[in-house]
Amino acid sequence: MTSPQDNLAFDQTRLDKVRALRDKGISIFPSSFDRQHTVLDIKTRYADITHDKSPELVSTAGRLYIVRNHGKTLFADLGDETGKIQLYIRKNDIGEEQFDLFSQFIERGDIIGITGHVFRTKLGEITIWVDTFTLLCKAVCSLPEKFHGLTDVEKRYRQRYVDLIVNEESRQTFRNRSRIISLIRRYLDDNGFLEFETPILQPIYGGANARPFTSYHHFLDQKLFLRIAPELYLKRLIVGGFEKVFEIARNFRNEAVDTNHNPEFSMVEIYWAYRDFEDMMALTEDIVSSIVFEVLGTFEIPFGDTRLNFEKPWRRLSMSDAVKEYAGIDIYAHPVEQLRNLARQHNLDDWEKSTTHREFLVQFFEGLVEEKLIQPTFVYDYPVENSPLAKRHRTKEGFTERFELFIHGMEVGNGFSELNDALDQKERFEDQDEKRRMGDIEAQMIDYDFINALGYGMPPTGGVGIGIDRLVMLLTNNSSIKEVILFPSMKSMQVEEDEDEKKPGTDQDKK
After folding, report:
1. Strand bridging mode 264-273 / 244-252
2. Domain architecture of the chain: domains with CATH
3. Are 269 and 463 a contacting pair, CB within 8 Å?
């Protein structure tokens, strides 16, 4: 049996060097360094530098990526967040003692600070001619092999810090993720929406059909749930008089892990008083298309073997028309028994449980259509049975004013004209609660306080949630959600657990 300590990647040779440096009285973990320039600053300022050394000194710091020893000279690549630059180190310049120190103890992965003059080599590379160096951090773990980087996919996800050190593509993905979130926030700020924070620990989970994570608060002696969506709290704000609200939220759903799903994920939820689902479709289309253009400079972008076109307007289809076009099935032209036979032939999930045309409509759409929706497409008119928070359709009995946005077979957005009839909401929650009691682990609980809030009156409101992780996947050409979440959920490698560790929510916890 292994222990967690066995997963440490400490290199014995490096540990020996740490001890040797300490024996020499050399500080290897100083508290600060007066870095006055980034690599980008230097390359920009000295873009026209010649072979002559710059008269002024520069001061920078970063991690060593390559060290090449040529006897009395050293070449090294130093990198910071803004880029990499070559260092030129001569024994005659820094002295024999310092040169030997660098040669024997400083290596790839270490973090150093340097001062020096800038010049251009005969090969045309902007380089720093080093005058002094300072060891800022001695790495005791070795970086992956320099030419191949970190290529083990699982290790890249588990040790994202190493992935970010050695893979520029990964760093760029997360730069873009940060920028995308900033642009979403800026768009909404510029259009008069107010950002709020709502509870993550909730006594009643709701806002989506999903299995929650359960916890327990000892002081309150109360079971709590990690939120699956901020929806019900944001709509309380609409009741309270705020008319344009949003939250960039971290949500948690106790579900399977695959290329499109992570139990912990990010989304933006937006609510707009006196608007409906048509307005929210237009808002979603404008937010996403404008961000695509701002980040990538074009509306047409690659994703795998496909090119996606985000130029407005996007296609809009009712769910029944989508099933007719992509699955070749006109739902209402067939009796239920014939639909059951078709569902069985297509090996659709839960085909035996469906009893109505609307239930089969959802089955055929989810099983045969979603994956075929490649270009940005809004699908609307969802049955009331699977839309417990959406307003009933104004003209189609049994349906709601709900839409979902699909891109490359993924659901990226979900919105509706929000249900603001307290009595109807109570009935729908009761239907959901009955399903939950019958074993549907994703059905919603009854939130009586939310029903009470609706009883005070909520104006007609449009709402939408947009999945940030999936949007980042599309804009960075990544087919797995784990590539765009810094620290995705992974099965623990720790095999030894404290036998006395208690699980939350047990009777022992409450004592």
Report:
1. antiparallel
2. 11-143 (2.40.50.140), 166-314+375-483 (3.30.930.10)
3. yes
| Alpha-helical segments (H) within 87-158 | 91-94, 96-105, 153-158
Selection from 153, 190, 196 nearest residue 479 by Cα: 153
Q: Which of 355, 352, 358 is CA-nearest to residue 331?
A: 358
DSSP E strand stretches across 104-161: 111-120, 126-137
pLDDT in tens, 173-195: 999 999 999 999 999 999 999 99
Cα→Cα distances 359→317, 339, 348, 351, 442, Å: 18, 10, 12, 9, 17
* Contact in structure between 289 and 310 (CB atoms under 8 Å): yes
Tokens of 122: 């005969």
Decide if 89 contacts 99 (C-beta within 8 A): yes
- Cβ of 159: how many Cβ atoms within 10 Å? 18
Question: Which strand (E) or helix (H) includes residue 399?
Answer: strand 399-407
Q: Dig out the tokens for 202 from the structure.
A: 């909730």
Whether 462 contacts 272, CB under 8 Å:
yes
Q: Are 306 and 374 in contact (CB under 8 A)?
A: yes
For residue 320, which of 279, 348, 362, 278 has the smallest C-alpha distance?
362
pLDDT (tens digit per residue) in 307-350: 999 999 999 999 999 999 999 999 999 999 999 999 999 999 87
User: In the chain, how many H helices and how many E strands?
Assistant: 16, 18
Let me know if 263 is exposed, middle or buried by CB neighbors in 10 A (0-12, 13-18, 19+): middle
pLDDT, tens digit, 9 for 90 and up, residues 22-45: 999 999 999 999 999 999 999 999
Q: Which of 201, 189, 194, 239 is nearest to 418 (CA)?
A: 239
Computed from CA positions of residues 215, 216, 217, 220, in that sequence, does the dihedral angle turn out positive or negative?
Answer: positive
